[in-house]
TrEMBL record:
One family name in Pfam for this protein: GGDEF_2
Name of protein: Uncharacterized protein
Transmembrane segments: none
Protein family membership: Belongs to the CdaR family.
Length: 363
């Protein structure tokens, strides 16, 4: 926005004449004169001039008109009307400018996250909205208990924290589908780290943050954004608590889901026999999950399941007998753990698995 210290004379056009006329005739400005002031106010707003500087320029012109003359009352009354009309025109036009700017920013964010534009290119708009041009970009997303909004308290707090730490335009902060989104240069890991810290605080430690990998170019922004969103989905399916997840640490999970039919075949082949247990496969699968999530430490697994160590050991032995895979054997443990992860990714046994060539009946 242009500085109010250097307002062009064109925005004062006609103002001195209004003051001179009222000084001579005592009459206040007519409708045409006030309409002209509104039009000039609108032009000043569209050009980006601040209202404070514009009002200051008018008051300076008022002082000039009063110099050496008699009673200032009629002149000041005219000045008040004229400036008020000018400011009214400025505010009306400014509201339109703000709405257009918000719409342009929203369109820019959508295009950016879909990979339609390069922020470093001529149409990128980086100088207006951010992020700073860079060879690669990292996208982080934060999800709270309630959807985040552009003008919401979380967005305002995080935006102020990022600007205060790294300056305006260093990163782009926006919302998309209720998520708080940060697009930062890929070589500045401190930006998404600070975003994650501030987002967790703004969401009162009730949120979850996911960070995509640095990716080059416009398509890289879209890829990093999708990675971050996918990480949130994995957190839901696998029970990750965060508060911060990095896509680089979760690469094995997209690999497992790339061939869902093969993954379903593994789950049914390894864990299918557990359906014959009391209560179905669910309780024994929960036992396996707790055992692996605790680093295969029996005491910690039993605590998480609220069981005695003896009861946990009995369940593990049952799993061994029913599946033919020993959780205590390193090689067989890997097969069991991969199948258990696959079951969580596919939400089995709550949902039926996709068909496989050799699917077990009833899977």
């Amino acid at each position: 926005m242009a500085s109010g210290q250097d307002v062009p004379e064109e925005y004062l056009t006609g103002y001195a004449g209004i003051l001179a006329d009222v000084r001579t005739t005592g009459r206040r400005p007519g409708p045409e004169a006030l309409a002209a002031r509104r039009a000039l106010g609108a032009r000043a707003a569209a050009a980006g001039y601040g209202l404070r500087g514009l009002v200051g320029a008018h008051l300076a012109a008022t002082r000039t008109a009063l110099d050496g003359h008699g009673s200032p009352d009629p002149v000041l009354a005219a000045a008040e009307q004229a400036v008020d009309a000018f400011a009214e025109g400025w505010e009306r036009a400014r509201q339109l400018v703000v709405r257009r700017e918000e719409a342009a920013r929203r369109e820019y964010v959508d295009d950016l996250l879909l990979g339609r534009i390069d922020p470093g290119g001529p149409a990128g708009g980086a100088s207006r909205f951010g992020p700073a041009p860079a060879p690669a970009y990292t996208v982080a997303v934060a999800r709270g208990p309630q959807p985040c909004e552009d003008a919401g308290p979380a967005a305002r707090r995080v935006g102020a924290a990022l600007a205060g730490r790294f300056g305006e335009g260093a990163a782009l902060l926006a919302t998309k589908d209720g998520l708080l989104v940060c697009v930062a240069p890929g070589d500045r890991d401190e930006v998404p780290v600070h975003f994650a810290r501030q987002a967790c605080a703004a969401l009162q430690d009730a949120g979850l943050v996911a960070v995509g990998r640095p990716r080059p170019g416009a398509g890289g922004i879209a890829a990093s954004y999708e990675e971050a969103r996918d990480a949130l989905g994995l957190a839901d399916r696998l029970g990750f608590e965060g508060p911060v997840l990095r896509a680089a640490d979760l690469l094995v999970f997209p690999l497992l889901t790339r061939d869902r039919a093969a993954l379903a075949d593994l789950v049914l082949s390894v864990l299918g026999p557990l359906r014959a247990g009391r209560g179905g496969a669910g309780p024994l699968l929960e036992t396996l999950t707790a055992y692996f999530d605790s680093g295969c430490v029996a005491a910690e697994s039993a605590r998480r399941l609220r069981l005695s160590v003896r009861a946990l050991t009995y369940r593990l032995e049952r799993i061994h007998r029913m599946t033919g895979h020993d959780p205590g054997d390193p090689v067989q443990r890997y097969t069991l753990q991969t199948a258990a992860i696959g079951a969580r990714l596919l939400d089995w046994p709550a949902r039926p698995l996709p068909p496989t060539p050799d699917a077990i009946p009833g899977g």
